[in-house]
Amino acid sequence: MxxxxxxxxxWLLAAxxxxxxxxxxxSESNRFYVQxxxxxxxxxxxxxxxxxxxxxxxxxxxxxxxxxxxxAMLQAGLAALRQNDPxxxxxxxxxxxxxxxxxxxxANHLGLVYRKLGQLPEAERALQQALSxxxxxxxxxxxxxxxxxxxxxxxxxxxxxxNTYRFAQNTMRAEEILRNIAENEAADTLRNAALATLRAYxxxxxxxxxxxxxxxxxxxxxxxxxxxxxxxx
Amino acid sequence: xxxxxxxxxxxxILASTAAISAGQYEKLDYYIQQMITAAVAKDQASxxxxxxxxxxxxxxxxxxxxxxxxxxxQGLDRLTRxxxxxxxxxxxxxxxxxxxxxxxxxxxxxxxxxxxxxxEAERLAVYTLSLAPGQxxxxxxxxxxxxxAGDVQRAVGAFAxxxxxxxxxxxxxxxxxxxxxxxxxxxxxxxxxxxxxxxQAIPPAPAAPDPPAFTPPRPTSPETGAGAAGSAIEPLSxxxxxxxxxxxxxxxLGKPSTPVPSTTIARSxxxxxxDNPGQRIYRRSLPLTCLIVTFRNGKTDNLGTxxxxxxxxxxxxxxxxVEKADNLAVKCGDxxxxxxxxxxxxxxDLALLSTTINSADSFVLNETYSQDxxxxxxxxxxxxxxxxxxxSTGVISGLREIDGVRYxxxxxxxxxxxxxxxxxxxxxxxxxxxxxxxKVGQNLNFAIAxxxxxxxxxxxxxxxxxxxxxxxx
Lengths: 233, 473
What we know:
A: about 230 residues; mainly alpha; B: Serine Threonine Protein Phosphatase 5, Tetratricopeptide repeat
């Protein structure tokens, strides 16, 4: 017990064990801030969003065990994505995030791959991680909005789209993307979220026309009576 | 200690960056509006200063130009086929692919304009001009946007800048003339017209290869009042661009939704005779019946009717049609002219206009004012609510003298826009000039008797014709 080497290792172990809940706690608080940014954006509370953004930006970026290897994995994951192989991309990007939890690109693309694979809770978590690292990343906000759209969560989709516009490098481009969604998107949730976002920012948008319902095959056309009418003699 | 200060400083920079990002459009719009205001004030130095401010803004990141070009081509194809919705979808995709391409952004703005989505068109035009402040086509689009929105002042400024930055100012002036004469929106026509008037003071941009070929004179007010009576009719130059604009504007104003009968009549000087008296009178009268358009403060103000009273272009109408006009334009059949008020009066409510129209035929006034007229068939032709050449029939219901002026009461229906038009007997002579109607009752309408026109001094015996009643009804 008095062995200095043992004491050193024991001390390191204790520090590591203490760091795990601290890191976990930090991660949860970051998720909370990201959620707050969404809620406040949906409520059009600009100052609130800015405050939460600062809270996130004050956090130190977590250091990974091997950022160099993470970067290589990220490149491999992106190559797999380009080859339209999301499963292979998923493995590579998961490894990249494990090797460097502070790699925003890896977290962002991991969220994208999860979304493509329909694993929405995992996609949400990965994108929230990316946003906790870089809360002004408009692309991640946009992907998160799509995830919420798929989850039929209009309010959060609206908040995420509002942040997409807020942090867009080119707001006119973002505006046009929002209009495109508001006027053409087939999914109600995302379409309504885009519409709400445009209205929140007082941006012009065409009156939304609800797309016509798909024809019901059980109904015969009005011009073709199923049987001839008969008159009483 | 350094890190303690570094973080807040970084946060401050990030926060201010976000604020700038949120206000990107407003900042660009400010510069564009300043350029417009300066253009209206003919302050070339300020236009240039704000242009330089825009030129000095950081350049946008280029996007995927190859993909954007493909979408752009689709958009252009659809735009030429007037398929604006599909053009919008294509240009939108092109813009999203490469938002730094001013041509694509400008075409997206134009497509929004064609779809009458003016707010979007304005935003995209402002954005485009922030990328390329000297893009004349987008200034032109912005002028149309403001004109369609009824904001004439800004339309003028935008059109002026379109001219200033045009690579071919003469061509741009031609485009403005076309807008000034054919566009359906008053604001666009007036904006283009006022811009044309101000072009004299606008030198083209230094890069322009040729000097402007178009220097229209300012319009002059027509002579009005009794003092102008008896003055010689000055020939009006057809080469005056403003006059040309006014004349061409007539081609659009008041055009009926159905094919214009006047065109047919004008191309058939000898229409086939008809046994139907109404049809015969209609065919003869239509080319001699005039649409009168008045302009006031640069805007289209009033529409009325007149009748060609001499073969050298004298037109009779009501004074209330022209009383507030700064400028007048007249179209009789397919012949157009600007007009000057030669004589006018309140009692009777008459005005005599001089025009450059020459005609082989003219109306003949009927001198008769007697009870013999009552019960005779009459025909009324005019432009009620701008519906050119509207023909109606009735009878003479009575003779009335109101405030010392002799009127013929008629049963033919008339509406605003008929004022100043002829009331015609079966023999083709004009027995009265449509003037007013009672709001109560039905078809209780009144025309100033032709005899009153002659007696009140609006008849020029050397140039106009009159005759008494010849035929029995």
